[in-house]
């Protein structure tokens, strides 16, 4: 990571400032409609959940759902995840979830794809020891490319590669209706 980015990190206690408490932190990148974020936050009240959504309108809808459903252990922010993750304090995240990221199908849009060596390095830097990165997608070529980036990151080790048992999101349901395979990997920060 460039020195400028490393020196511009958020303060080490930023998550405590945001959530008002010290708990394990899970970050979802690209929450879409917020289904996974809301379900996870309700299921795990002892965790803090932070989501980064590229679409400002989707982030506002998710934030409204969090308020209406009285979910106080989750926050959502609109922004560029690749940039924001670089600002996270080192070893501050227990789990990253990247579920059905936009594959940016057109060749001219590939520069917008999330999975780059720089992004994988930023995830590695932000992860606490034994923290995990879970990737799920229904695009085989995109999965192979992301898996290559994760496997090439020295601080991460593969835990599992396969298909998720169950996942209840609109993207997972669409893939199931189409009969499209869903691919999953989990990588862990090395001790």
Describe this structure in words.
The chain is α/β, with parallel strands linked by helices and 191 residues long. It is built from eight helices and seven strands, in the order H-H-E-H-E-H-E-H-E-H-E-H-E-H-E. The protein is 36% helix and 25% strand. Helix 3 (35-43) links the parallel strand 1 (25-29) and strand 2. It starts with a helix and ends with a strand.
TL;DR?
The protein has 191 residues and is an alpha/beta fold. It has helices at 3-7, 14-19, 35-43, 56-68, 81-85, 117-126, 140-151, 170-178, and strands at residues 25-29, 48-53, 74-78, 93-99, 127-137, 156-162, 183-189.
Which residues sit in consecutive blocks of at least 5 with pLDDT less than 50?
1-7
Q: Helix share of residues? A: 25-40%
CATH-defined topology: Rossmann fold
Q: What share of residues are in beta strands?
A: 25-35%
Could you give the count of β-strands? 7
* CATH architecture grouping: 3-Layer(aba) Sandwich
Structural class: alpha/beta
Spatial extent as radius of gyration:
16 Å
Distance between the termini: 20 Å
H/I helix tally: 8
- What is the domain tally? 1
CATH superfamily: Vaccinia Virus protein VP39
Largest sheet: 7 strands, mixed
